[in-house]
């Protein structure tokens, strides 16, 4: 009877285990049915560096203090907003006065508190601002609510660029990544993702910091450690990128670099100006190649005829002569 009792208890345990397994399998299946999202593209690489997230989280309430930590980004709008607007206007034949970017879809990657997203929305564009730092997006949402004009033009999302790439393809007329690429983990993946969500012929705008001895001395030693213009640890020199390196990554992803322009910041006046010198900060504009044009009808028929003659070649020796004509 002891044997029987033991045997029965084992059978009950095994049955329980099998039923747990089945329940889990069923729940897992349900979970996959709950989200019928089609993944268009998936990358195992993340571009988000958790240390950067920590740094930006602690500063999330300071975005809109024009005299504070982000003062240089506020005044950078004097250069970058017209740079983006004027280059985008070159791609259209006419535009609405007062709303020149109306009809354009822009993705502002690493939008922070929305310092650049808002002026782009005011120019009439539909802008999606994304940032991996939740607190930044909350600040951006809150600030947007002060201007009713922006309600329908700007959408903010706390997510990474990789997540956008999983949902959509060739959607945006322009992508803006201003002062962001020097914070990402894997620049090549970041650019690849930008390229995927950009429409053929679309524009990518990047502003960033060059990787030079001068950028180490001024951008890190002076700005962070001596003058306290930027909080310590904001930048890592190893992540800075030269215009040449950036250009080679862009070109290898099917983007042509149209402009690279130096930007210099005067810490005494608090203003930026354009410069030929790109050894510190610079802006780049690149365009994704347009979709291949279908061959012209005559060219198409000639190619078809050549293919037909080549196919007949072995069966019909005279085809060689016909091809030569
Ligand atoms: C210096 S701020 C620039 C903010 C904004 N673009 C501007 O110029 O006002 C850098 C921003 O990039 C975001 N960021 C960091 N890593 C990122 C990544 N891998 N992808 C997208 N954004 C990132 C940060 O959270 C931060 O908001």
From TrEMBL:
Catalyzed reaction equations: a 3-demethylubiquinone + S-adenosyl-L-methionine = a ubiquinone + S-adenosyl-L-homocysteine; 3-demethylubiquinol-10 + S-adenosyl-L-methionine = ubiquinol-10 + S-adenosyl-L-homocysteine + H(+); 3,4-dihydroxy-5-(all-trans-decaprenyl)benzoate + S-adenosyl-L-methionine = 4-hydroxy-3-methoxy-5-(all-trans-decaprenyl)benzoate + S-adenosyl-L-homocysteine + H(+)
One MF annotation (Gene Ontology) recorded for this entry: metal ion binding
Location of the protein in the cell: Mitochondrion inner membrane
Cofactor(s) demanded: Mg(2+)
Positions of region (Disordered): 287-325
Pathway: Cofactor biosynthesis; ubiquinone biosynthesis
SUPFAM superfamilies: S-adenosyl-L-methionine-dependent methyltransferases
Membrane topology: Peripheral membrane protein
Known EC number: 2.1.1.64, 2.1.1.-, 2.1.1.114
GO cellular component: extrinsic component of mitochondrial inner membrane; mitochondrial matrix; ubiquinone biosynthesis complex
One Pfam family from the record: Methyltransf_23
InterPro entries in the cross-refs: SAM-dependent_MTases_sf (IPR029063), UbiG_MeTrfase (IPR010233)
Binding-site positions, S-adenosyl-L-methionine: 80, 110, 131, 178
Keyword annotations from UniProtKB, A to Z: Acetylation, Magnesium, Membrane, Metal-binding, Methyltransferase, Mitochondrion, Mitochondrion inner membrane, S-adenosyl-L-methionine, Transferase, Transit peptide, Ubiquinone biosynthesis
UniProt-annotated binding residues for Mg(2+): 179, 182-183
Catalytic class of the enzyme: transferase
Biological processes annotated in GO: glycerol metabolic process; methylation
Family membership: Belongs to the class I-like SAM-binding methyltransferase superfamily. UbiG/COQ3 family.
Self-association and partners: Component of a multi-subunit COQ enzyme complex, composed of at least COQ3, COQ4, COQ5, COQ6, COQ7 and COQ9.
Annotated HAMAP family: UbiG (MF_00472)
Function: O-methyltransferase required for two non-consecutive steps during ubiquinone biosynthesis. Catalyzes the 2 O-methylation of 3,4-dihydroxy-5-(all-trans-decaprenyl)benzoic acid into 4-hydroxy-3-methoxy-5-(all-trans-decaprenyl)benzoic acid. Also catalyzes the last step of ubiquinone biosynthesis by mediating methylation of 3-demethylubiquinone into ubiquinone. Also able to mediate the methylation of 3-demethylubiquinol-10 into ubiquinol-10.
UniProt name for this protein: Ubiquinone biosynthesis O-methyltransferase, mitochondrial
